[in-house]
Structures are given as C-alpha cells and as structure tokens.
Design brief:
Its main location: cytoplasm. Keywords: Cytoplasm, Gluconeogenesis, Glycolysis, Iron, Isomerase, Metal-binding. GO terms for molecular function: glucose-6-phosphate isomerase activity; iron ion binding. One of its GO terms (cellular component) is cytoplasm. Belongs to the archaeal-type GPI family. It is built from two helices and 13 strands. About 25% of the residues are buried. It has one domain: Sandwich (Jelly Rolls). The chain starts with 20 loop residues before the first strand and ends in a 6-residue tail after the last strand. It has a six-stranded antiparallel sheet, with no helix packed on it. Strands 8-7-10 form a three-stranded antiparallel sheet, with no helix packed on it. It is about 5% helix and about 40% strand. By secondary structure, the protein is mainly beta. The chain binds 6-O-phosphono-alpha-D-glucopyranose and fe (ii) ion (FE2). Fe (ii) ion binds next to loops.
Length: about 190
C-alpha cells in the first residue's frame, strides 16, 4: 500500500494557500451572469478581478477530499453584489462545507426544482451545503470576503443550468441595505 503524505498548510492573511493552484475569475469570465447588462458592459472596460480561488485538489476519487480558499472581492454590477459563478456538483449527491474567514457575505443555495435559500456568513460561520443543492457565494461587504471550502475529491463542478437560468433570488443593495429579492428573469 502506498500512502499519501499528510499536509499542513497555513492560510495567509490575504486568503492565499501557499503552493495551491490559483484560478482567477475576471468580470469577462462572468458574461451573462449579472442582471444589469448595461452596468456589466460599462464595468467591463476595467474588467476587474471578481474572485480568486486557491485549490489543493486530489485525484477525482471517492473518499478523498479537496479544499480551497476563495477571495471574493467587493463590488457590484448595478445593484447586484459580486458573486461566484455557482454550481451544482457533477456528482450531484456530494455535499460540501464552507468556513468564513474574513469579510462579510453569504451563500445562495438552490435545489434542482428552484427552491432558493440565503445563508448569511461572517468570520466563523460554517455552512453545510447538503447533497443536490447548487451554491453561490456573494460578497455583501466592502472588503474581500475570504472563506475555505472542503469538498469530496470526486464532486466536480456542473455550471450548466446556473449559467443558463441563474438563481431564483438576487442579492442586491437597495437604499444602502443588503436585500435578497426575487429574480425577475427567473424561469423554472
Ligand atoms: O466554481 P465557482 O462556482 O465559480 O466557485 C468558486 C469556488 O468556490 C469554492 O472555493 C469552491 O470550493 C470551489 O470548488 C469553487 O470553484
Ligand atoms: Fe461546490
């Protein structure tokens, strides 16, 4: 039997995991995701980084675990706060755990039937993402929102239906307040 080596790694203040695989998502990678297309096109001239992911991933085998931090930057497209793309797991019954480290935000979760839930997150909040729920994180604050996620190595990412249909709810700023509202363009 060949055993893998254990690993202990310290997450840096800024959310970086030393030695992890880095993924950068800019606004241009999120085309079609935000409601306000005019605001999107305008902000696209600057094409800001929306989030970075630092992932330590294993082979896609049942029983093993991956982990990743996300640094989700503050910002809005129109009224809508910056968010991650959001996904179901390719193996849809795989669950996930998130742990908020810094900043303020929350998670939108949604069943395949379109039932959406909002879970606020602040440093110290643990979120359990049950099997079958799509999940997207949102930065509702004015500093980077940093969190850790731990997920089965064989979970995979299924972006398809979220990319096409989005979430049934939107997280927006209205009169200086964070509001979770129905998505007017949502179609089941
Ligand atoms: O893949 P997205 O929906 O864009 O979310 C960004 C990332 O968030 C977390 O770090 C998850 O652990 C990653 O699996 C995911 O890739
Ligand atoms: Fe996930």
């Amino acid at each position: 039997m060949e055993y893998k080596a254990p690993l202990g790694v310290k997450i840096e203040e800024n959310g970086v995991i030393p030695g992890a695989k880095k993924l950068v998502r800019r606004l241009s990678d999120l085309k079609g995701y935000f409601q306000d297309e005019e605001a999107y096109e305008k902000l696209l001239r600057e094409n800001p980084v929306v989030y970075e992911v630092y992932a330590v991933e294993q082979e896609e085998k049942d029983g093993d675990l991956n982990f990743a931090t996300t640094v989700l930057y503050p910002g809005k497209v129109g009224k809508e706060f910056f968010f991650t793309k959001g996904h179901f797991h390719s193996k849809a019954d795989r669950a996930e755990i998130y742990y908020a480290i810094k900043g303020r935000g929350g998670m939108l979760l949604q069943t395949p039937e379109g039932k959406a839930e909002w879970v606020p997150m602040e440093p110290g909040t643990v979120v359990y993402v049950p099997p079958y729920w799509a999940h997207r994180t949102v930065n509702t604050g004015d500093e980077p929102f940093i969190f850790l996620a731990i997920y089965p190595a064989d979970a995979g990412h299924d972006y398809g239906s979220i990319k096409e249909k989005g979430f049934a709810k939107l997280v927006v700023e209205e009169n200086g307040e964070v509001k979770v509202v129905d998505n007017p363009k949502w179609k089941e």
